[in-house]
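User: For a reading group we're discussing how well predicted structures match intuition. Take Carotenoid biosynthesis protein. Before you show the prediction, I'll give you the sequence so everyone sees exactly what went in.
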Amino acid sequence: MERPPCLSAKAAKVIIVLFHTVGLIGLMLPATHVLFLKIVPFHLLLMLLVVFFNHKYIDERFLGFVILIYVLGFFAEWIGVHKGWLFGDYVYGETLGINVFEIPLTIGINWFLLIYSAGVTMQRLRIKSNWARIILGALVLVLLDMQIEPVAVRFDYWHWADSIVPMKNYVSWFLVSGLMLWIFEQFKFKKQSWVGPILLGVQFVFFGVLNLM
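Assistant: Thanks. Here is the predicted 3D structure of Carotenoid biosynthesis protein, as structure tokens, for the group to look at:
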């Protein structure tokens, strides 16, 4: 049975902006830097709950979408780390939390947050073509990854062989994101609030500022 969101859009936006701001300050201050790196997994869990409980009409279909994107994201990273077919030659550090098969359990959460935020953003832009929304959304996520990569290496999210981010990473990001955004389109969710776009925009600011440190 469908049920309306448990968290209002206003409250969700406040939580997203507030916690990213606090996290940004905490990571920038030497006295709190180590502590805030340790709570990165909990920050991702909080954002998951915020997005989840703000979604319009939580039902079995939405739960299926969350689980599907989580599993696909985790599996894509497993292929990347263990087979090298996606992204490139890289290994995960300790910042993202507990690893299973050398992949952080939180990485699937991160993929869901990115795909949902980008999918809803394209939805809110009222682009009529499904393929245009998918391609533009995937390009936006590649641009975000370009902001994330330098921060991720510096903060022990993951590390690249020879400390070089290969072009293969960005190509794979586009393809994997495109596939997941295609899946988002197939679920045909009703028009969502601006919470997803706010989260996406805040992440651009968050990682952009950290890159200036």
